[in-house]
Amino acid sequence: MRQELQSLPKTLAEDVAKNLVMVARLIDEDPEGAYGYSKVALRLASRVAAVREAAGFAAYANQKYSEALAEFRAARRMTGTVELWPVMADCERGLGRPEKAVDMAGAPEVNKLDKTGQVEMRLVAAGARRDMDQLDAAIVTLQSPELASNAVQPWTARLRYAYADALLAAGREGEAREWFAKAVEADRDGSTDASDRLAELDGVEFVDALDENEAAEGEVVVEVQGDAVEADQADQDDEREEDVEDVEDDEDDEDDDEVGDDR
């Protein structure tokens, strides 16, 4: 990227570089913010392939698939490389053209991809098959030496997860559980929610501890308030009984006085 920016005047190159750095920093946590910085970089240096690629990824993160695809195509024309082929195919999926993504998965460009790119292309193709309700074809698409390998690569967890999810969608729950477990083993950085999916299949229900404590406190308050009401009611009953006894005693005294007067 630095080499590409050397074609620009120094001050301009620095400004573009700062915007590209912000795109990289924000794209996961704040895609909209990243998109804003990418537009600035694009306005400053639209003829730099790295800028077009960054703008494509920022648009992709914001589900602006048509715009992302246009930027990826421009970057590919400038560089002549095929590394963006899988994400371009995924843009076709996002645009509601899964059949186009499947066609791209069978194109000669795929043979020029490195191992990571080929796995990404397989994931995209399987997703496209699922978009077309071809679950069995999606499962077959994911079956590969990379899936069967015991070696853990950066893409292993996602590949196993996609396979497990496809199996589950096809009603093969037992096999799905097995592959979700394998995905958990490979997911060292928590890039998937495989552990949650596995727990869900095992019938484990997670409860928010904070909500549970609040609920428990609420129950205590209700119980205390209930006890207080009962206590107040009891005190009132006792007072009524004492008042009745006092009245009866006063009436007895009056009767005694009247008898004394008659005597």
Mean pLDDT: 86
Helix fraction, binned, reads: over 70%
> C-alpha Rg, in Å?
36 Å
What structural class is derived from the secondary structure elements?
A: mainly alpha
Number of strands: 0
As residue ranges, the low-confidence spans are 220-231, 254-263
Helices and strands, in N-to-C order?
HHHHHHHHHHHHHH
Overall outline: globular
DSSP summary: helix tally? 14
How would a crystallographer describe the biggest sheet? none
Strand content: under 5%
Distance between the amino and carboxyl termini = 124 Å
Give an overview in words.
Helices cover 76% and strands 0% of the residues. It has 14 helices and no strands. Helix 2 packs parallel to helix 4 (49-61) and helix 6 (85-94) packs parallel to helix 8 (115-131). It is globular and about 60 Å long. It starts with a helix and ends with a helix. The model is unreliable at 220-231 and 254-263 (pLDDT under 50).
List the SSEs and their pairings.
Blueprint: H1 2-5, H2 10-26, H3 31-44, H4 49-61, H5 65-79, H6 85-94, H7 98-105, H8 115-131, H9 135-142, H10 145-148, H11 156-169, H12 173-186, H13 194-201, H14 209-262
